[in-house]
Design goal:
Length: about 325
Amino acid sequence: MEHILWKNDELILMDQRKLPGETAFVTCKTPDDVAAAIRNMVVRGAPAIGITAAYGLAMSAILKRDFDADCQLLLDSRPTAVNLRWAVERMRDCRNKNHGKSDFFVAEAIEIHREDIEMNRRMGEFGASLFSKPVTILTHCNAGALATGGYGTALGVIRSLFNHGKLKEVFADETRPYLQGARLTAFELAKAGIPHRVITDNSAGYFMAKGEIDAVITGADRVAANGDTANKIGTMMLAVLARHFEIPFYIAAPWSTFDLSLASGVGIPIEERGRDEVAFINGKSIVPDNSPVAHIGFDVTPGNLISGFVTEKGILHPPFRTDSD
């Protein structure tokens, strides 16, 4: 599934807002276009955002724009996912090492993209090793190929489980209000022929209580040094439910998602998005005109609720680092 494509010094992105009903693409010709695509969720998912930003900075070098200004433009597009900052800093290092030659920027962005896919595949194999028999997995939001360079983080683990004959079924939370689970995760699972069901966000506890879910695996947008993890809103509730029902709760994320400069999740910036994503469905208002909306994009799951992190370097088990370490 080629959803991020660099061609003729332009970036072509699959418009994830249109899926699953329509496969459409947006062509970015300037870093401003790239920032808008990130901000407006043409592309989303922490690793995919970082890759997209890297290509945006390659574009900046080619167009001979103010590179530092474009770095800030892209950093401001979405605040929570640390992969964005990681990619921008890596492209800054590329500039310093190669004296701003545009060919090196393009090569670096392509390498970031390639590395991400390879890391996801390694993550998938490590994650699959956690289970010795077929399991049913609950996942939240979309942490698949569409959220990364390809293959996926949490969905990468699920793909590997399926390939090894160790997957019974996937429960995909719909993930209101943007429906990344219902629209995107289900789209990827259906395309791969992986057995799944879409469930409403408020029914996860019901299925856990019935003993139908063996583990929860999600992606992440930022992980603090003590294991506190920011991910799509609703993730923390799943972790609390999983602890109550004694179900393992795993995070699949590359090392670029770990922000060791933050001792805990308290310092993670949490994006608040606009009213319309909650108040409207398909252009039709579902909220009274005079009713305000609080639309929080992410929550932070305490590290002590997480059974382990699946990374491209292996499984990180608790205890995680604390403020005093």
